[in-house]
Prior knowledge:
Blueprint: H1 2-15, E1 65-77, H2 90-102, E2 108-112, H3 120-140, E3 149-153, H4 166-172, E4 174-186
Parallel strand pairs: 2-3
Antiparallel strand pairs: 1-4, 2-4
Amino acid sequence: MKFIILIWVLFISACSTQIVEMTPEPTVQKYDLSDSEGDGIILARDECPDSNVGAKVDNKGCGSQTVYTIRHRLDVNFDINSYQVKDIYNAEIESLAIFMDEYPEVTVIIEGHTSVRGSAAHNLKLSENRALAIQNILINKYKISADRITAVGYGESKLLANGNDNVSHQKNRRIVAEISSDKSLIDMKWTIYSVDKEAE
Length: 200
């Protein structure tokens, strides 16, 4: 009988569950596992916590940028012995002014040129007046700061066409201005709303 009781006690003991307190104090979280930016990188290893929303980031949470070079060119032609700017070039000059407004760090050199007709001294002065005519429009009409514009006259020293016919002379009576600026764009993640360049 004692043997049966002993067996029964051992059986009851084996079926009972004993709870052992393994962590007497709450575990303190050592690292910040949150992602306040929503870029998929936890703050504990995010080295760029201020990256733009939706930006494409690396394993350290840092985004990248692609630099694009944007260029703008102005070409204006003049009548014989004239520095009067024709109305047909108003849109091109306005486009240059808009470009300079968009990129306030750029400066422009306006080059005035002439054909070989007339004396070298006269042509040099005429080319300067042509460059100044464009400069004055940019300053007075479009409020571009004067310190961003340089007007230079080259006279007949930089011919575009070497012929002695009317077409060549017309091509040489010109203004040329070309400027460029680098524009940085943040690389963004592809989403279902993204538009591929090929599809634009």
